[in-house]
Amino acid sequence: MANLHVRNVPDRLIRRIRRSADVANRSLSAEVVTLLDEAVRANGSRRSQARLLGAIARRRRSRRPGRSGRAAAAVRRDRAR
Asked: Cα separation of 60 and 48, whole Å?
């Protein structure tokens, strides 16, 4: 396993991480690794969601124009009966 050294971490942040570690009954180091892992996973999920939303937007833009107009016209004709 690799070592990671982080410099200039604000005291307030260290205190918050230390409190979180105490609540989770972990060492400060284990808590930092857990927090980093969760952040990286969440970032990957956001990227996946962004790709999915982009694909949906591309599909919507690629539809032939006028198709939804036909559906609206059919609904109007049905309502007029």
From this structure: 19
